[in-house]
Amino acid sequence: MRQFSMVSLRDLLVASGPTLLAVVAVAVLAYLWVDPAPPRRLTMATGQFNSAYEEFGRQYGRLLARDEITLTLQPSLGSHDNLQRLVEGKADIAFVQSGSTAEGQAEQAGLVSLGSLFTEPVWLFLREGAKVAHLTDLKGKRINLGPEGTGVPRLFRQVLDANGIEPGELRIGSLENTPATVELLEGRIDGLVFSSAPEAPLIQMLLQTPGIRLFNFAQADAYTRRLPFLTHVVLPRGIVDLGRDIPAQDYHLIAPTATLVAREDLHPALIGLLVKSAGEIHGKAGWFQQQGQFPSPKYSEIPVAQEAARYYRDGPPFMQRYLRFWLANLFERLWVVAVALAALLIPLSKIVPPIYVWRVRSRVYRWYGELRKVEQALEGSGPQARDSLRAGLLQRLDEIEEHVNHISIPLAYAEELYRLRSHINFVRERVHGTIDRHGMATMSTASA
């Protein structure tokens, strides 16, 4: 029966209640505050219409959707525009071209790199009739560099400066990529400059358009020495179309590197997921890269996020190697909770047992106080007064015994209860006068 159980469940719950509440509170705080859940929505600043940035943004969106994360794409002018959106908090992540900012400026703005993704060659497309063999031949030509927010104007001005050419010596246009391409094909401008991965549809189209030729940076190595954020890449002969031999020669190009940049407050779990997605999208062999060359923590002046650097060094977190993202993240967060609970439970586990014992025994011990009051009343009265007090004291003892008989106590502490009942009988005998305070029989009893 429940009244003869070895443990009092009610007392155990009461004794451990404050501890359980403290444990739950710490667990909730650890779960929500120490390592909050990753957001399920991200905003990415991409690039212009028909750009490689736009296409890669769609690929990131498809990969993140597998883990129930919605990626909102923000079209932009390009690299500088993307940097501004990150700084203003309008985007969480964005594509940024190397050379667009300095390390100190990036740190001050609270930006971190998640890795370099691919090289973005400088594509200078010209009409065949423009007769440009060297960059100095661009003087007086109508060349479109794109809007200032793209980063190309700043980049190409540095290239011009390396050749001793003042921007004012060219007729520079600022059209976006698509309308500038139309102007070139219509012959209303002499050339245009892109800085983009070869996957961009406009690049693919212009490489195969008759009457349009690509400028060959024969001094590419010299440019990389003068402008360290550039690398020398080669567009191999026939890479566009082997059957038609397009292009008909190797082209030497100079190329900055596209970097995936994030705000430094981006959730650490999402950083790992984004680096993983970058590996799936950019890790294959391409026109200018070997398989596995990208993504990489190198080639960027923006400091690499600690979580991204750890991913490049050690690979994905242990849980994410075997579980889906959200389940792995849940277990990783529960691990934090488990550590917090262990730190709390170890000291509290030493407090609960004494509290439980005290609660159980207090049901018995409180009646010893009542017994003591009866004894004090007996001892404080004179021999003549005891006869008049005896009936009242005996009635009080009967009341105490009635209450004690209804005490529910675990079997492990039954000895305490039976000892109390024997002590009640002891005091009753004293009230009757059959024994003294030491338990010895009185003279009248002995005579009888």
How many DSSP helices? Answer: 15
Which class do the helix and strand fractions yield? alpha/beta
User: Widest sheet: strand order?
Assistant: 2-1-3-12-4
Annotated CATH homologous superfamily of the largest domain: Periplasmic binding protein-like II
Tell me the count of domains.
Answer: 3
Unreliable segments of 5+ consecutive residues: none
CATH architectural group of the largest domain: 3-Layer(aba) Sandwich
**What string, H for helix and E for strand, traces the elements in order?**
HEHEHEHEEEHEHEHEHEEEHHHHHHH
Report the CATH C-level class of the largest domain: Alpha Beta
What spatial form do the alpha-carbon principal axes imply?
A: rod-shaped
Mean of pLDDT: 85
InterPro entries: TRAP_TAXI (IPR011852)
Protein name: TAXI family TRAP transporter solute-binding subunit
Organism: Massilia consociata
Transmembrane segments: 12-34, 334-358
